[in-house]
Structure formats: C-alpha cells, structure tokens
Amino acid sequence: MDGFMEKVAQNLGTEDIIRANSEAEAREFENVKSKMNEYENKVSDYETKVADYQSKVADYENKVTGYEDILSEIRRLNLKSVETNEMTNQLVSTSVERLEEYRNGGVGKDLSEDIDSIKETLKDQEEYIHKENVRVYRNVQASIVDELKLQTEALGMQNKALEKKLKGIKGLAITVLVFSLIGMSGVIAVLLKLFGVINLTF
After folding, report:
1. pLDDT at 2
2. What single string gives the DSSP state of each residue in 20-76?
C-alpha cells in the first residue's frame, strides 16, 4: 500500500494530493451537512407533532373539566332533590298532624285509613325518587369514567408511538455522527501521512 501511495505522490504533486484530500473532505462535509439538515427537519416535524399532541392533551383536559362541571351540577341537583324531599316530608307531617287533630275532634275512622294510605304513598314516592336520583348519578358517573379511560388509552398509545419514532431518529443521528467522525479521522490520517507527521503502513 505504501508503494501505491508513493506512486500516487510521485505522479501527483503534494499540492494535488492536498487539493484532492480537501475536495474529498469537502464532499464528505457537505454529505454530513445535508444528512444533518435532513435529521433536523425530521426532528422539527416531530416537535410539531409533539406540539399537536400537547394541544390534544390540553383539549382532553378541558373536556375533563367539563365533565367535572357536569358532575358538580348533578350533585347540586341531588342536593336540591333532597331539599325538596325534606320540604315534602314537612308538608306531609303538618298535614298528618292536622288530620290527626280532625280525627281526634270527632271525624270518623275512615279518615285514619286515608292518612295511613297517604303516608304509605308518600314513603313509596320518596324511595322511588331517591332510587332514580342514585341511578342517574351512577349512570353519568360510569359514562364519564369510561370516556376518560378511552381518552387516556388513546393518549398513551400516541405517546408511545411518538417515543419510538424519536428513539429511532436519535439512534440514526448517533450512527451518522460516528461514521462522519470515522471518515474525518481517515482524512486527517492521510493528511498527516502526506506531511510526514506519522508513518502508516497498510
């Protein structure tokens, strides 16, 4: 190999060798530069995608806030329903007391049967309203929890896909950097040999 390099050195002047090496080095540099620009563009694209995903996450957070508002409204309505039930119970109690007064004042036994019937009907109505309120609350809560699970899973899948893509680019960028360093060290070694700084034998 030394003989080949000596023949090349004899046929070509030192300036020609340096010029050829410089041109090769410039081509290698341009090649590495274009690849780095390409990778920078890909990274920029992925950064844009990350920003899009972050925007989607913000949208989902807004939806969650909306669901929380719905839940608070349902809770408020439940409390209002309880208040209404309490007012109804007070009204019934007052009515029952007045009916008791009438009964004690000489109204017949038929009235006491009606009072018992009214009490039973009101009790049944109260239980029914309470059951319906609980059923509605649980249905809304279950649907919100299911929706949140679906959205969380979708975000997780998108994040994993993005993470895989970024890992692939990182590995590729490191590989290109290593190969460009190897190429540059080869050019430097040839230049050092040409100037007689080191003696390489192949």
Report:
1. 57
2. HHHHHHHHHHHHHHHHHHHHHHHHHHHHHHHHHHHHHHHHHHHHHHHHHHHHHHHHH
